[in-house]
Amino acid sequence: MELFPGQNIKECRQNWIMAMETSPMVKRMIRDQKEQVQRWDKMAHLFAQEKRPPENIKAEELIIRDLQAKGALSDTTKVLDIGAGLGDLTFSLARVAESVTALEPSPAMAGILEQRALEKGIINIHVENRSWQEVDLDNEGLLKGFDLVVASMNPGVSGPDDLAKMNLASRGFCYLSRFSGLRGLYGFDGIWELFFHEDPGMESWDIIYPFNMLYALGYRPSLDFIVKENPGRVRVKQAGQMILASLWDYMDISPEVEKKVDAFIMARADKGFATYDKGVCQSRMIWQVSGKTRRPG
Fold first, then answer.
1. Backbone angles phi and psi of 228, in degrees to 5
2. Which spans in the chain are helix H?
3. pLDDT (mean) for 221-231
4. Cα 173 to the chain's mean position, in Å?
5. What digits encode the pLDDT tens for the residues 99-120?
6. What are 226's strand-pairing partners?
7. What pLDDT, on a 0 to 100 scale, did the predictor assign at position 291?
8. Handedness of CA 254, 256, 258, 260 (dihedral sign)
């Protein structure tokens, strides 16, 4: 691919690193990566019980069609899915692609993903229980090892080095999806302020940072946004478990914390359900890392 690099690569990289270092939601983190994986293990069954809203299924269908339209996905495509979770997008990719290698650091999540693939009779998914940071492209012979590298709505690609690694792993295209403009804990607006009495600030893994980095490197990603207003409801008990599991990254969960969360949820409850009261904006980027492309203009 012909690149058109800008002059601010170091500046974009530094801005992203600074956001990672100064964000209140990063500075208040008290759990290391191993502990965070344990948190996802605890939440796996909660997410597995959730009934997926129709708009999420439609969004995945749009992603697949968009990847196909751009020549990034076909029946000969070998896909790497970073942070596959329970496999919602993984399965959609596998129905089209030749094969999908799914990385998932949570043993519980990876186990559910494998079981679901077995139940669905999908045999072209290979699940690996490890993080993107644990993959050694050089020693494992994975440089340019995939036609499409995907990281969708997860913290697996959290900084400039992780993003650069995506480009190195792909011989064709990359796809990255993240929140745009999100402030605070997803879904329940006000919970961060309730406990920490401060503005949560902008997420350090907002789409603006990888977009600026890619643009400075000379790539020209296609970028679009999906705005979701009040994305759903969950049962009161489940809402409490989700909030407490997220807060655990930042504090020890005491009886007093549980009481505050219960009161917060009950103030938003209706007929046994708590409403997600925060609209979110999901961003999606697709870019080509190899092959010829025309110069703009």
1. -120, 120
2. 9-22, 24-27, 33-49, 54-69, 88-94, 107-120, 160-169, 191-196, 208-217, 236-247, 255-266
3. 80
4. 17
5. 999 999 999 999 999 999 999 9
6. 282
7. 57
8. negative
